[in-house]
Amino acid sequence: MKKTVFILSAALALLAGCGQSKPEPFVRSVMLVQPANLGAESVKVFSGVVCEAGEISLGFKTPGQIALLAVKEGDYVRQGQLVATLDDADYRLGVEALQIQYDQLSDEVARLKKLYEAKNVSVNDYEKAVAGLKQLGVQLQVNRNKLDYTRLYAPMGGYVQSVNFEEAEMVDAGTPVITLLDTRRMEVEVSLPASVYLQRECIKSVSCRPFFDEGGEQMAMQVLSIAPKADGNQLYKMRLVFDGSADKRLTAGMNIEVNVRMDGGEEAGKFVLPLHAVFQEQEETYVWVLAGDSTVHKVRVELDGIDHAGRAIVASGLSGSEQVVKAGVRLLQEGEKVKAIDENVSGTNVGGLL
């Protein structure tokens, strides 16, 4: 009997102890997301090609037979350097013949001038002689020019891309004999997709770096032009010029990395959130924001539609540094204390949909 009473007393004491402990309050667990800046600055990387500012086809101003080719393909020539000559024997003879005639007529005009001053020659005869001397002088100068045209000089510094004739061949006036690459200013050509071309006003800066110089310093570029017409691949050609002197190691035809830095344009200051992070109350739109004391509070926002990925575009109400409740927004209460959990997607939660 005593043993039964003891067991009953112990059970009553245990029940009394359990009745005095209070259950812990329920704390809801939530997943958080930070607003993504829709108009954030971005850098797009493309592959470009280094090219010369232009190429010049050099030819003689007069026809003749090539006597000398002073350069070969790949040579670098300086401005004013002799690159080719024609056989000038006939041109020299033409200058000498006219020079003799000019000297003879010049002596005759000098004698007629004395007679004209003594009034022994009419004014008409004297003026005809003077006009004939001037005409012969013009012909003499034309032949001297043709003689000078038998020597071809480089109009600027550059590399010889091609030599189109051999010595002893006949060429006509204006026929391209040598093609010269203008390397005074190197350019870069890059093809832009339509998505970047349509936002060309948002391009803040452009820089490039040779592929062989991985990790090297970026070289600043200036946009020279962007073609308004797409090619067969729906790409738009953009031409760039170096903002300063180009790397001496760059040569025409070399591939180069081009970095195009773009701002957000009209989307600057806007953010995107998962669509289920947004809810409405009394025709107003809100999100739950986690405070520093682990409580949630409603924040009114304004939406600007939905982006191509199905996310809500927030036009105002957020700064971008907030922690926003991602799911279960209709179960929360103002000022409710919550517990933030990591979003670890399990193998059975494909795509993180749950």
Features:
single chain, disordered C terminus, 354 residues, 6-stranded antiparallel β-barrel, alpha+beta, 22% helix, 4 helices, 4-stranded antiparallel beta sheet
Would you spell out the secondary-structure blueprint of this structure?
Elements: H1 2-20, E1 28-33, E2 36-37, E3 42-58, E4 64-69, E5 76-77, E6 82-86, H2 89-117, H3 123-148, E7 151-153, E8 158-163, E9 170-171, E10 178-193, H4 194-197, E11 203-210, E12 219-226, E13 235-242, E14 255-262, E15 271-273, E16 279-281, E17 284-290, E18 296-300, E19 302-306, E20 312-316, E21 324-325, E22 338-341
Parallel strand pairs: 1-22
Antiparallel strand pairs: 1-21, 2-15, 3-10, 3-14, 4-6, 4-9, 5-8, 6-7, 8-10, 10-13, 11-12, 11-14, 12-13, 15-20, 16-17, 17-18, 19-20
Helix pairs in contact: 2-3
Query: What is the overall number of helices?
Result: 4
Q: Which consecutive residue ranges, at least 5 long each, have pLDDT under 50? A: 344-354
Strand content: 35-45%
Strand count, sense and closure of the main sheet? 6 strands, antiparallel, barrel
The end-to-end span amounts to 60 Å
Order of helices and strands: HEEEEEEHHEEEEHEEEEEEEEEEEE
Mean pLDDT, rounded to whole units? 84
Number of strands: 22
What order do the strands of the largest sheet run in, or round the barrel if closed? 3-10-13-12-11-14
Helix content: 10-25%
Radius of gyration: 44 Å
Structural class: alpha+beta
General shape: rod-shaped
